[in-house]
């Protein structure tokens, strides 16, 4: 009785609120949002514009719409800077990372959430805490470890003598194979998955592998999407590790190839901006197609952390 | 819960066998899933131990040695010499100041602006998703790429100088002047961090129960009072997260420095991370670079804890 009175009062309040809202400052806040959004987007508008501006017009004129739009910058970005090679390298590194994280990190997160074993919590928190280790701390040791991996790149069994994984794509991939953040996301996801499904399958005699692959994995599509996006963008965008571990152009990633445009004193902004657009498009496409899960995945991961 | 109801059915559907009593059976199942749990976790756990935890210990050991990767001999133990030297190292002191200033001038501005934007996009209206996504775009685009864009905007013939010229003001050499270079980098970073902070704070805002706002309204609380006593306390966990993450990321600034200024002019933008990079990979001083990394690590932890305390404590 009292409960129903209470809910009626609340819903009445809600109605009042709804009626109240549009009048107060909505127009003002939209104006502010439009202004801020325009300011935030301005740099991108000019990147695109500059990428279509011919070299001869690039200096002195800063109009948003080039008088004689051209594709020459894209052509020279691809051919002069070996950007295509770098794109391929980044794609390989990204895809391998996505695959290993979707398998290993998701499997681990699932086990942490669904398969209690002694030391589960302690191990989980130990692994997750590594996400807080600054890159600068692991950078030098990882470099030396990559160099000292036994039996590759001319190394002997003790990891001496050669260059190990330095200047190879495997070396670039090395730090990303399992990202702690993905284990965290996976555990959070499976913690809220229904236990009953697995129990029922267990009663029917299904093994743990089967329960994982045919009961829970199909449920985990949103999780897989978020893990894949995080892994891919993280690797695609990284700069410092590829800079340290590679030295030749054949194994450069996209971000390094971009930075190489800066190399010789006089920066050619046209091709540079074309390259920037090319390097940005894949991530932007991934984002636009997955906006919802991307933003909510990010915020959920944060909220419950 | 369901296991207890299903278990007898499962047992009765398997009449053959020695009819073992249920409790040990369940125990056996539990331990089997525990074994699988360990097997599932093992590859990822081993990997993280080897390539995340071992490097930390390795780095700590290196920080007590002198080591150049070019030398034939291995690391040479020198005790706390590296740390002692850092105490009087002017370059390192400068890098600490630059990093501190960078964090201190970017962090408050981004967080406050992002909170304002989060409040604006928290209300449901048509097209709100568009604003949320558009403001998030700088976060999506890599730091290297946006640094390239800002490099052009700051250049002699770039957007900023064109705008100044339009108003008849003289062109500035934003990144080439040691007084303005760090501010210029900071402006870029504020622009870049705005969207991700906004999205996180938005999620925080949405996790605050509606009833609290209605209760505040019933109690006659005004806008400011509602913000002060409902929104801010409810946002505290997310605010803590945002501030801590910002400190961790900002204190490790590298790509933007590498692209925009290469640490110059006159080391005015040489952050600790940039100094570590040059020390280790250009001068091959991996021991002292490791010591720098651990000092930075300690400072990041220390300041994150302080900031978290600050955000938590103020509302008590």
UniProtKB/TrEMBL annotation, chain A:
<feature type="transmembrane region" description="Helical">
    <location>
        <begin position="27"/>
        <end position="48"/>
    </location>
</feature>
<keyword id="KW-0812">Transmembrane</keyword>
<feature type="transmembrane region" description="Helical">
    <location>
        <begin position="211"/>
        <end position="236"/>
    </location>
</feature>
<keyword id="KW-1003">Cell membrane</keyword>
<protein>
    <submittedName>
        <fullName>Carbohydrate ABC transporter permease</fullName>
    </submittedName>
</protein>
<feature type="transmembrane region" description="Helical">
    <location>
        <begin position="91"/>
        <end position="115"/>
    </location>
</feature>
<comment type="similarity">
    <text>Belongs to the binding-protein-dependent transport system permease family.</text>
</comment>
<keyword id="KW-0472">Membrane</keyword>
<feature type="domain" description="ABC transmembrane type-1">
    <location>
        <begin position="87"/>
        <end position="290"/>
    </location>
</feature>
<dbReference type="Pfam" id="PF00528">
    <property type="entry name" value="BPD_transp_1"/>
</dbReference>
<feature type="transmembrane region" description="Helical">
    <location>
        <begin position="269"/>
        <end position="289"/>
    </location>
</feature>
<dbReference type="InterPro" id="IPR035906">
    <property type="entry name" value="MetI-like_sf"/>
</dbReference>
<feature type="transmembrane region" description="Helical">
    <location>
        <begin position="122"/>
        <end position="149"/>
    </location>
</feature>
<dbReference type="GO" id="GO:0005886">
    <property type="term" value="C:plasma membrane"/>
</dbReference>
<keyword id="KW-0813">Transport</keyword>
<dbReference type="InterPro" id="IPR000515">
    <property type="entry name" value="MetI-like"/>
</dbReference>
<dbReference type="GO" id="GO:0055085">
    <property type="term" value="P:transmembrane transport"/>
</dbReference>
<keyword id="KW-1133">Transmembrane helix</keyword>
<feature type="transmembrane region" description="Helical">
    <location>
        <begin position="169"/>
        <end position="190"/>
    </location>
</feature>
TrEMBL record, chain B:
<protein>
    <submittedName>
        <fullName>Carbohydrate ABC transporter permease</fullName>
    </submittedName>
</protein>
<feature type="transmembrane region" description="Helical">
    <location>
        <begin position="35"/>
        <end position="61"/>
    </location>
</feature>
<dbReference type="GO" id="GO:0055085">
    <property type="term" value="P:transmembrane transport"/>
</dbReference>
<keyword id="KW-0813">Transport</keyword>
<keyword id="KW-1133">Transmembrane helix</keyword>
<comment type="similarity">
    <text>Belongs to the binding-protein-dependent transport system permease family.</text>
</comment>
<feature type="transmembrane region" description="Helical">
    <location>
        <begin position="102"/>
        <end position="121"/>
    </location>
</feature>
<feature type="transmembrane region" description="Helical">
    <location>
        <begin position="291"/>
        <end position="312"/>
    </location>
</feature>
<keyword id="KW-0812">Transmembrane</keyword>
<dbReference type="Pfam" id="PF00528">
    <property type="entry name" value="BPD_transp_1"/>
</dbReference>
<feature type="transmembrane region" description="Helical">
    <location>
        <begin position="190"/>
        <end position="208"/>
    </location>
</feature>
<keyword id="KW-1003">Cell membrane</keyword>
<feature type="transmembrane region" description="Helical">
    <location>
        <begin position="133"/>
        <end position="153"/>
    </location>
</feature>
<dbReference type="InterPro" id="IPR000515">
    <property type="entry name" value="MetI-like"/>
</dbReference>
<feature type="region of interest" description="Disordered">
    <location>
        <begin position="1"/>
        <end position="27"/>
    </location>
</feature>
<dbReference type="InterPro" id="IPR035906">
    <property type="entry name" value="MetI-like_sf"/>
</dbReference>
<feature type="transmembrane region" description="Helical">
    <location>
        <begin position="238"/>
        <end position="260"/>
    </location>
</feature>
<feature type="domain" description="ABC transmembrane type-1">
    <location>
        <begin position="96"/>
        <end position="307"/>
    </location>
</feature>
<dbReference type="GO" id="GO:0005886">
    <property type="term" value="C:plasma membrane"/>
</dbReference>
<dbReference type="InterPro" id="IPR051393">
    <property type="entry name" value="ABC_transporter_permease"/>
</dbReference>
<feature type="compositionally biased region" description="Low complexity">
    <location>
        <begin position="1"/>
        <end position="17"/>
    </location>
</feature>
<keyword id="KW-0472">Membrane</keyword>
């Amino acid at each position: 009785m009292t409960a129903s009175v209470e809910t009626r009062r609340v819903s009445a309040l809600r109605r009042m609120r709804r009626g109240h809202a549009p009048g107060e400052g909505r127009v003002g806040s939209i104006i502010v949002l439009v202004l801020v959004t325009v300011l935030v987007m301005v740099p991108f508008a000019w990147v695109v514009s500059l990428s279509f501006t011919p070299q001869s017009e690039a200096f002195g004129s800063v109009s948003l719409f080039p008088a004689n739009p051209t594709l020459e910058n894209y052509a020279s970005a691809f051919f002069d800077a070996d950007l295509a090679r770098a794109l391929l390298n980044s794609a390989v590194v990204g895809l391998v990372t996505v695959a290993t994280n979707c398998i290993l990190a998701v499997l681990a997160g699932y086990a942490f959430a669904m398969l209690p074993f002694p030391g589960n919590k302690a191990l989980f928190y130990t692994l997750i805490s590594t996400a807080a280790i600054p890159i600068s701390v692991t950078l030098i040791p990882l470099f030396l470890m990559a160099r000292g991996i036994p039996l590759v790149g001319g190394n002997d069994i003790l990891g001496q003598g050669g260059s190990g994984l330095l200047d190879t794509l495997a070396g670039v991939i090395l730090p990303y194979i399992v990202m702690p953040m993905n284990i965290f996301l996976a555990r959070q996801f499976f913690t809220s998955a229904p236990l009953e499904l697995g129990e029922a399958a267990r009663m029917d005699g299904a093994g743990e592998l089967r329960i994982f692959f045919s009961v829970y994995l199909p449920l985990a599509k949103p999780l897989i999407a978020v893990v894949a996006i995080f892994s891919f963008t993280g690797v695609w965008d990284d700069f410092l590790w590829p800079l340290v571990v590679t030295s030749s152009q054949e194994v450069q990633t996209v971000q390094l190839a971009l930075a190489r445009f800066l190399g010789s004193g006089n920066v050619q902004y046209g091709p540079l901006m074309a390259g920037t657009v090319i390097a940005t498009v894949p991530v932007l496409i991934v984002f636009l197609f997955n906006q919802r899960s991307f933003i909510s995945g990010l915020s959920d991961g944060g909220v419950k952390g | 819960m369901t296991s207890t109801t299903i278990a007898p059915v499962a047992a009765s559907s398997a009449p053959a066998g020695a009819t073992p009593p249920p409790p040990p059976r369940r125990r056996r199942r539990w331990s089997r899933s525990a074994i699988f749990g360990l097997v599932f976790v093992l590859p990822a756990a081993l990997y993280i131990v080897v390539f995340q935890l071992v490097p930390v210990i390795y780095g700590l050991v290196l920080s007590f040695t002198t080591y150049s990767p070019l030398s034939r001999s291995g690391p040479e133990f020198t005790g706390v010499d590296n740390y002692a030297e850092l105490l009087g190292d002017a370059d390192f002191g400068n890098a600490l100041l630059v990093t501190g200033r960078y964090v201190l001038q970017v962090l408050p501005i981004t967080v406050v602006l992002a909170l304002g934007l989060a409040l604006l996009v928290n209300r449901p209206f048509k097209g709100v998703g568009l604003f949320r996504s558009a403001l998030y775009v700088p976060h999506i685009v890599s730091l290297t790429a946006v640094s390239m864009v800002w490099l052009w905007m700051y250049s002699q013939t770039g957007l900023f100088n064109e705008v100044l010229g339009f108003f008849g003001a003289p062109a500035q050499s934003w990144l080439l002047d040691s007084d303005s270079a760090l501010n210029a980098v900071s402006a870029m970073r504020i622009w870049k961090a705005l969207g991700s902070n906004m999205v996180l704070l938005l999620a925080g805002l949405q996790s605050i129960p509606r009833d609290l706002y209605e209760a505040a309204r019933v109690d006659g609380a005004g806008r400011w009072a509602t913000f002060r006593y409902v929104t801010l306390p409810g946002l505290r966990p997310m605010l803590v997260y945002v501030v801590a993450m910002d400190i961790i990321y900002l204190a490790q600034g590298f790509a933007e420095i590498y692209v925009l200024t290469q640490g110059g002019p006159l080391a005015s933008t040489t952050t600790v991370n940039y100094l570590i990079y040059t020390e280790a990979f250009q001068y091959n001083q991996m021991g002292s670079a490791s010591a720098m990394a651990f000092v930075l690590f300690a400072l990041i932890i220390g300041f994150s804890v302080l900031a978290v305390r600050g955000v938590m404590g103020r509302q008590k």
